[in-house]
Write a structure and sequence with these properties.
single chain, 177 residues, mainly alpha, Arc Repressor Mutant, subunit A, 2 domains, 8 helices, 3 strands, globular
Length: 177
C-alpha cells in the first residue's frame, strides 16, 4: 500500500476518534493495531511522518524493550483537522479514501452560535483558573499537581465534547509538559 494512503487512513482514524484524546500507538498492549492490509512498520512510519509535518500531536513514551521501538500517544492536531475538514493542501502527500472522507464530513456537526459562545465562556473560565493556579501562594509541587489534574481534565472525552479543539489548544498553550 502506498505511504500516502497509509497516512490518509491514519489521519482519518485520528480525526474520527478526536474526542477520545491521545491514542496509543506502537508495540504496547494498548496500541491501536494497523488496519488489515497495512503492516506495522508502514503504520508507525506514517505516525512519524504525520508528526514530523505537524498533522498529529505525538507524545513518545519510553521504550522499555531497549530495542528502539516507536511507542507513544497521538492525537490529530489543528492542522490535521483543517486538512480533513477543509481539504486544504497538506505539507506531505496524503491520499484519502473518498468513502471514508464523506462519512467523516457527514458526522461532523457545526457548532451553533450558542454552543460556540458556551465554549468561549468555558475556555475563558479555564484560562482564569490556570492564571489563578500560577499566582497562588502555594508550593511549586502543589502548582505542579494542579496543572497535572487540569491536563488530565482537558485530555478527557468530556472536555473534548464541551470544548472541542479548545481543550487541545488550552493544553498546548498553558499546560505543555
Amino acid at each position: 500500500m502506498k505511504d500516502s494512503v497509509v497516512r490518509g487512513r491514519l489521519l482519518q482514524l485520528l480525526y474520527g476518534r478526536r474526542d477520545e484524546g491521545a491514542i496509543a500507538f506502537g508495540h504496547s498492549k494498548e496500541a491501536i493495531p494497523p488496519p488489515e492490509g497495512i503492516n506495522r512498520r508502514d503504520w508507525l512510519g506514517a505516525v512519524a511522518q504525520l508528526a514530523e509535518y505537524g498533522l498529529i500531536d505525538w507524545k513518545p513514551t519510553e521504550d522499555r524493550s531497549g530495542r528502539g521501538l516507536l511507542e507513544g500517544f497521538a492525537s490529530i492536531s489543528e492542522a490535521g483537522i483543517k486538512v480533513i475538514e477543509t481539504g486544504c493542501e497538506p505539507p506531505i502527500r496524503i491520499a484519502f479514501d473518498q468513502a471514508r472522507r464523506a462519512t467523516a464530513a457527514e458526522t461532523q456537526q457545526p457548532a451553533t452560535p450558542a454552543s460556540a459562545a458556551q465554549q468561549a465562556g468555558v475556555i475563558e473560565a479555564m484560562e482564569k483558573v490556570i492564571a489563578a493556579i500560577e499566582q497562588a501562594q502555594v508550593s511549586d509541587q502543589e502548582k505542579k499537581e494542579a496543572r497535572s489534574l487540569l491536563r488530565k481534565l482537558l485530555a478527557g472525552r468530556a472536555a473534548a465534547k464541551v470544548l472541542g479543539a479548545g481543550a487541545r489548544s488550552l493544553r498546548a498553550k498553558y499546560l505543555a509538559e
